[in-house]
Each structure stands twice: as C-alpha cells, then as structure tokens.
TrEMBL record:
Residues 192-399 form the Magnesium chelatase ChlI-like catalytic domain. Keywords: ATP-binding, Nucleotide-binding. Residues 406-502 form the Mg chelatase-related protein C-terminal domain. It holds the Pfam family ChlI. This is YifB family Mg chelatase-like AAA ATPase. The keyword Nucleotide-binding applies. It comes from Synoicihabitans lomoniglobus. InterPro entries: CHLI-like, MCM_dom, Mg_chelat-rel, Mg_chelat-rel_C, Mg_chelatse_chII-like_cat_dom, P-loop_NTPase, Ribosomal_Su5_D2-typ_SF, Ribsml_uS5_D2-typ_fold_subgr. GO terms for molecular function: ATP binding; DNA binding.
Length: 510
C-alpha cells in the first residue's frame, strides 16, 4: 500500500515541499530502501525509525518497503524525515488512515525510544505550510514553539511518535503550541555605557551609528576601551520589530550546528563577534548545501570585527557586497540561495602593528613601512563602506580613577529609539528601516541640502579625496545626526560632524 506524508527541505532560509512516499508490501527480501537523493543522516533514519516503531508499540514493516523523498533532484539532509517516514510506514501498513496525513506538514527527528527531537528551519516550514494552505504543522516541542510565532498556521507539538500517531488517528486532542516568549536585552549581559570612563567622542560616534544603523570603525591603542565599548552597543539598540525578529529567527533556525536557535533569545538583536582566523565561507556563508555565515547570522544586529587588519584579506573583501546590498547570494553545485544580511558593522583596530603610534605615553616601535603595510590590510573599497571612523585615544589613570560615570545605556537608548521612530515614520510603507539603508533616490529626497552646504561638502570631498559613495554616506550620517537633534532639515553643524567622521579615510590610506 502507498502512503504519502508531506515534509520539507531547507534551501537557504526557505523551505521546499518534500513528498515522503512510503510503499510497503513489495515483493522481495524484507528491507527498507531509501531513495530521493538522501544524505548520510537521512539514510541512517531507517534504523532509527525501526527502533522507534518497536519501542512505541508498533511492528515495523515485514516486507520490502521503498521510501521515496520527492522531488528527486533536491538534496535531502538531516534527520528531520524520521517522523514522517515512521508515520508513512504506519499508514502504508493500514494502521493509520492515509487521508489523515494530507492536512499536515510533518518533520521531526526520532530517538530510538520514539521520542522526538528538534529540527532546523521550523519557521521556514511554517511559512511553507501557510503558502500551501495546509491545516497545520506537526513538530517536536522546541521547534513547534518557534513555528507557532506564525499565528496564521496551526502548530502542534508532538513529543513522541506514539503521541503523533494517536493525534492523527483522532484518539487524542492537542492544544496549539505556545509561541516562544519575547526576551529583552539586559545590561547585566551586555554591560552599561555608564561603566565607560572618558571617550566622549567615541561614545557620540557609537550613538550616531546605532541611531542610523551605520557602520563604525574605532582606531586606538591597546586598552583604550574599543572592545569594551563595542560589547555595550547592544544595550543601546532599539528592540526589533516583529517582522525583524521573525527574519532573525528564520536565519537562526536554519543555521548549522553550533548556532542553534536556542542560543538566541527571540526579540533580541543578534550580536556576532567571529575570531580573526575565520574563513571566507564562515564569514559569508556557503558549504556543500549553502547555508548562512556570520554576516547573515548578524542580520538586523551587529557584526563586531575586533583587530580588523588581522582578518584575512580575502575574508574582509567578501564583505563589500553584503555591506552595500544587505543580501548575499551564494552559488554552489547543490544550488543557489540568497540570504539576508542587513547588519551593522562595528570594527576595531590598532593604529600600527605595535599599537602605540601617536600615544604620548608609549614609544611606537614600528617603521613607516610596517605601519603602511599594516594599514593597507584594510582596503580602500572596504573603508569606503564604513560610515564613521573615530579615534579612541588612550585613557589616563587619572581619568580612570576620577572621571564621573558617563550617561547610562538607558538614557542613550531613549535618544536612539526616538531617532529610529522618526526614521520609521519617514520610510513608512517601504522596506527601509533606518537611514543607512536609504537608496540613492531616497538620499536625494530625504537629505536635500542648500547650495551653501553643498559647496561646503564639495570642498571637504576634494580635500579628503573621497569617493562618490562617501558623498551619499556623509549625507546619510548627517540626516541621522539631524534626527537625533529632532531637526527637520540638515544644518551646517550636522553636516560638519558627519564630515569629520570621514577624516581617517586619508590617514589610513597613507
């Protein structure tokens, strides 16, 4: 007898329909044959399913059984097909009515005892079920809590194969799964800006960067507080909207092992800080079956790159297109996927290899050639895409001992939230969420300046030898500074402050 169960395969952050076709009672030696381009984990499912059926009180098929995962051209990976294969076997052996399976999309890993374990991509599967018009979704409890965030689909948590069977057989009723609770950022986890002594210029630059979603580079000697400040950036970021939070969870839920969705609290912006030894694929994404890298895992959040020049040149250069477009397209033999990566880049670096160039208290040991070679590791095109460059000078011992605490993260966060609200009102009805994501046409409309300010900007562009890309980015930053000041139009102070944040373009290129 033939039975069909509907499941899904992940392609990037989207899911595609998979028909799990189980045909039992075939002539031949008793065996289970898996076809349909399965990977090793899927091939092993026949042993897990056999033990799960036995330990759940069911008898595995005693005839030759063929399991086909269609479509055959789509590679199937992971243990998420255990539960649909087991239910398909029960339907193919007349213990479950096949028509009971038509209304649901089903996925789940099975333990040998028959208990279910979580799978990746629950939210993508929920969106697929909605597009297909399915009645609901059957998933393990942890995965069901993620999928339940999409309220348009009925999601049911099944903790075992036996429970799933009895629910589909109409023997028990299940309540709809409870969605994941929404979390919030705590300064106990991120630290508070009140802990930062001095560094007023850096604190201001960070506030401007977060208010507009701009990229930021901090340059200073060791111990000047660059990493300390970067770790506190999440404490002043506004909470994501529901759509943003769902996008973040979509990426997190399809991430490979090591970036499990449980590691990220729903409703918080992600913060990623990869080590400088990371590979190009680890940063951008990829693999045999293309998956998200650090740039996508930082979507709607922060990507912090400490010791920027220590990263491989090739790894840094792959950031160019994601920083510009907010999406990355990865092509591999197994297929092509487009992943979102609208992140805020926060980077930190020393001014020279020894770190003490320009420090009044420490002598620099580097030669001019060494300094030039060190700074050349950050290419001009990449630097061009970083909106704010700010120097973080060393803090004296007297400042550490006597400086009064700075503004708290809560105070700065309130100003940032007000500026973001103005931007959301300005871009209502579009996909733009902050000033940094404005298109060229929107810059011309939203960041219009008079002739006098235009002449000022032209002189600065010529003196600093800035590119046309930097022209737009200066105007975007000026618009953010005006938003923080609750100003309708960009004024001279706003533009001058935005220009000064580009002053390191020339010094880093020397």
């Amino acid at each position: 007898m033939l039975a069909t169960v509907f499941s899904a395969a992940l392609q990037g952050i989207e899911a595609e329909l998979v028909h799990v076709e189980v045909n039992a009672g075939e002539t031949g030696e008793p065996d289970t044959v898996l076809v349909g381009l399965p990977d090793a984990a899927v091939k092993e499912s026949k042993d897990r399913v056999s033990s799960a059926l036995s330990n759940s009180g069911f008898k595995p098929p005693e005839t030759r059984t063929t399991v086909n995962l269609a479509p055959g051209h789509l590679r199937k990976e992971g243990p998420c097909y255990d539960l649909p294969i087991a239910l398909g076997m029960l339907a193919a052996t007349d213990r479950l009515a096949p028509d009971r399976l038509d209304d649901f999309l089903i996925a789940g890993e099975l333990s040998l005892s028959g208990a279910t374990r979580s799978v990746r991509g629950a939210l993508a599967m929920a969106r697929l079920a909605q597009r297909l018009g399915k009645k609901g979704l059957l998933l393990p409890p942890e995965s069901a809590a993620q999928a339940a965030l999409l309220s348009a689909v009925e999601v049911y948590a099944v903790s075992s194969l036996d429970q799933a069977f009895r629910f589909l057989a109409g023997e028990v009723e299940l309540a709809r799964a409870t969605p994941l609770p929404t979390a919030s950022v705590s300064t106990e986890d991120t630290g508070d800006f009140a802990d930062v002594k001095g560094q007023h210029a850096v604190r201001r630059a960070v506030e401007v960067a977060v208010a507009g979603g701009h990229n930021l580079l901090m340059i200073g000697p060791p111990g000047s507080g660059k990493s300390m400040i970067a770790k506190r950036v999440p404490s002043i970021m506004p909470d994501p909207s529901l759509d943003e939070a769902l996008e973040v969870l979509s990426v997190q839920s399809v991430a490979a092992a090591g970036s499990h969705p449980a590691d990220h609290a729903f409703g918080c912006r992600p913060v990623r800080s990869p080590h400088h030894t990371i590979s190009d694929v680890g940063l951008l994404g990829g693999g045999t079956v293309p998956g998200p890298g650090e740039v996508s895992l930082a979507h709607h959040g922060v990507l912090f790159l400490d010791e920027l020049p220590e990263f491989k040149r090739s790894a840094l250069e792959v950031l160019r297109q994601p920083l510009e477009d907010g999406v990355v397209t990865i092509s591999r033999s197994a297929g092509k996927v487009t992943l979102p990566c609208a992140f805020m880049l926060v980077a930190a670096m020393n001014p020279c290899p020894c770190g003490y160039l320009g420090d009044a208290d420490h002598a620099c040991r580097c030669t001019p050639t060494q300094v030039q070679r060190y700074r050349a590791r950050v290419s001009g095109p990449l630097l061009d895409r970083i909106d704010l460059h700010v120097e973080a000078p060393a803090v004296s011992v007297s400042e550490l001992r006597n400086a009064a605490p700075g503004e708290s993260s809560a105070t700065i966060r309130a100003r940032v939230a007000a500026a973001r609200t103005r931007q959301q009102t300005r871009f209502a009805g579009t996909k733009i969420t902050c000033n940094a994501r404005m298109t060229h046409a929107q810059v011309r409309r939203v960041c219009a300046i008079d002739r006098e300010l235009g002449d000022l900007l032209e002189r600065a562009m010529n003196q600093l030898s800035l590119s046309a890309r930097a022209y737009d980015r200066i105007l975007k930053v000026a618009r953010t500074i005006a938003d923080l000041a609750d100003a309708e139009r960009i004024a001279a102070p706003h533009l001058l402050e935005a220009i000064q944040y580009r002053s390191l373009d020339r010094t880093l290129a020397l």
